[in-house]
TrEMBL record:
This is Uncharacterized protein. One of its GO terms (cellular component) is BLOC-2 complex. Residues 505-1006 form the BLOC-2 complex member HPS3 C-terminal domain. Residues 3-485 form the BLOC-2 complex member HPS3 N-terminal domain. The gene is HPS3. Residues 466-487 are annotated as: Disordered. Residues 476-487 have a biased composition (Basic and acidic residues). InterPro entries: HPS3, HPS3_C, HPS3_N. It comes from the Eukaryota.
Amino acid sequence: MVQLYNLHPFGSQRVVPCKQEPAHFCCGRDVLFVASAGASCRVEVFALRDQGRCEPLGSFATLGPVLRMAHSQTGDYLVTIEEKNKATFLRAYVNWRCMSAGSSRVCVRMVGHKMEESYSETLKEQMSIVEMPLSDPPLCISCCPLNGDLLVGCKNKLVMFCLKYLFINQNLTVLDFERSLILHIDNFIPAEIAFCARHIAITTELDVLILKLELVQQSADRTEQCAHSFSTLEKPVDVGVKNEGSSTHTLQLELDEFIICQKPAELLGEESKLCEIPITLEYTELPTEDTKLFQVRYLLFRCFTPDQSPFGFCEETKLHSLQLLPVYQTGSSVTAHEETEIKKELLSLFCFFSLPHAGYLYSVGKLVELISTYQYSEKSEQAVLTPQFLHVITSENLQCFTVRCSAAAARDEDPYIDTTVKACPPVTLDVCTLRMQLFIGPRAICHFKNHIILLTKADTEDITERRKPTRKMLSRKADSIKSRTNSESEPGWNLYIINTVSTIQLYREMVDYSKTYENVKTESCIHLLSEAHLLVRAAVMDPHFFKSDEKEEILRAFRESCAFLGDCYSRFDTKDYHLALPYYRMSGLSMTEVLKRLVSEGDEIQMYERGFIFYLTHSLNEDLNEELSEESANKVLQIFCLADPVQLPHILCSPCMRNVCPVTAVKYLQKVEKIMPSVVLTLTKAFMALKMGDLTMYEHEMDSCKETVLGCGFIGQPKLLRQWKEGIVMPTEFAVHLKETQPGLLVAATVALHENSKIELEEADTFFKMLCGNKESTIPQLLVDFWEALLVVCSQEEILQELLLRLTSQYVLRILKKQFPETKPLKTTEDLINSCNHFGLIFPWVTFIMSMGSPSAKDYSEYTSKLQSLLCSQSINIASVLPILEPLTEDGNVGLTIHVLCNTHLGKYEEAIDQLLERCPDAAVLYAQHELKDDNRAVWWNKLLPELCKRARLTGNDCPVFISSLKETLSVVAMELDLRDFLSFLPEDGTAAFFLPYLLHCSQRKVLT
């Protein structure tokens, strides 16, 4: 559906002072080329100035009448198809600007001719005409706006010429062309072609085909590769193309007075291969290492039929105005100088073509899809597409339609644009007609920057028809009319430059126009403001934007349009109410400014729509740096009390509401509590009580629920404990108070937040350090308590090992420095052992060794026992903590137990026994009894028995502990080994009497078994 608005996109108009009647015209970088009609074979050149002013630059002769012409911005050359003696010629006019400087020198040469022979230092200021011979007459032409390559359409083929830059000498660079590729298309006669970024669009009378030349990897044998035919079908079948020959069957049907019409078809993407139009590539350039090889990818095929047009006769239904429109990356460079081309980065590509009464706009870049269909009120003559508008001429009108190119390109540039942060009006938004401007006999149109060039021709028949006499005077004036027709055989024509109004001026008009629908037609108001937004967005995406004098004004208009759209989705009850949030964010408005726009002053009750509440809810629930004034914060409370009272506890916890009046907040919370009580609401009331300094009310609220319930309540609203300020996590007054009065609840709540993914481990570290006022390098006891509590419930292996590593590090640090914690630890070693599998029961031999030393301070021994308990469990990865444990030397009992525990974890039992026999031999047997079991039993007789025998012999009676340990060891060995094996392990120099009891015991056990 097309929306109709009466806006004014067309400004002033000026007449181009052409000497001869124009036949064709096109625009260059800053000039207008006009090819004369009839026998006058010339091209006039006009400079386009500001406000549509047009100044003649000069003219040059052509070989014959110009049939087609096109200008390439890259290379700044003009290419024409000219006719002479019933033959057509393809010519390119290079360096034509020297004609306007007064030079009359012209060099005519064939394509590929040696430049050195035609140019010299003295002759560089001359126009060069490059003639490009073809085996078939050229029918249509198109220049690529990105690289200046030329595509020529002939019967059954397309010929591509690459633009070349030839360096004649240091001061002279000359343009030339090289025929590089021919696309053979059987039974296909192109009416129009368009060429851009290796995309090719072709139309016949009723068919549209869009292709892309894709690069392929070069083969080692390029000759074979070049001869390869890229074809989609082995047997070509004609689909909807008017061929010169027809089958016998078709001829017979026509003789039988049947009319065969191909069904209309639309094939997109991969399906377009089914169009049954085979294409063969033929490479014609000289092969080099840099030669590019291509394959054809079909993007779109569309077939129309004559009966698809609701107006006119069938034979008038033909396609026209084929165009490929590139849209570049925002901020990409454009031509910096006449002879210097800076590469433009293509973002999106669009294709437009039209029937007499309908136009079609497709996106053919990243995704091939139909964007818009344009229905014209009357038969169209020609149309031209720009990034902002579609301009169409009919027999009497110049019409201006909006387009959706900027909406599609914005989504190509940012696929995630439709989020809570950014938004853009949809591609499917209805198109609208901005203006129908009356003209007499519009015939041709083209577009250049903010100018429309329009050719009008008023035929004599049209003039006389308008002056047709009344029936009473008809007989008397018939002869005079006839004679006037003969004498006025020349039609009246004019070539206009119509200056389109600036983006800002049209944007302002659209905004003003939208106000007429503000209280009547909501959708129309949103639609017009969306059109205004897309108009400005297209201006921002224009490559010339960053060099524009209106840059700052356009950016302001962009932000303003976002604000207007945010207002619409906030004030109106629409299904897309959620768009209020991203549009307000793009507008750059603060929450205070939005409130001023939408909330009336005073205490009167307003109705607030979903969009406004949605915006406020999301804005307040996020960690913004903005703080509302007390007045604004209280107004927000009033709004939510009316619109969504359940959200009040969460709203009050927002950092934006820091200045809210706590008394007013409690009053509103008490109203909500009667309707829907909750733990979060109770905690919020306690929070407000703290702000008021009412400790009695605070204790009443906190005592109304169990501590476990309160801990879970913080999960529902973590901002009760921590908030963000300028990207840093900050504890609230509530958290500070809990630290002093209920540290256990604070730690339990933080653990619950972590386990419910409400706070990360690093955030928790910062939170407790900020809370306890510690420096970055020191770890507060409350954070250690948090790690210990988290270890109890943690199930993620990665976080588990990280916690074990951190706790080990802290225990070692405090043992070495003999630090006393600033607060009493919340859990003792016994508490942790009873509640957590990662803290193991301390081994008896560890306890025995610790009892041998001098007693330490209570807190100091607590860290020791926690570290030993960690190492007595199977959870810790001993390899990762070895560097941390290294500072604990074996000199003391603590270091000895730690090192022996590490060796035990690593399976180094012999080293552990050596350490014990050296430092604490009394514990050796106790260690062996606990650790040397099952697969490790052999260590008893392989290591412990020989070591004890050796040490007992060396010390004699001076160390009775070795003797007693030896006896214990012999008892175990005698029980485990056979008599022969037992004898083999006894020392040769031992006293027989000493070993007799064990030998007897061993032999008796053997007899019994």
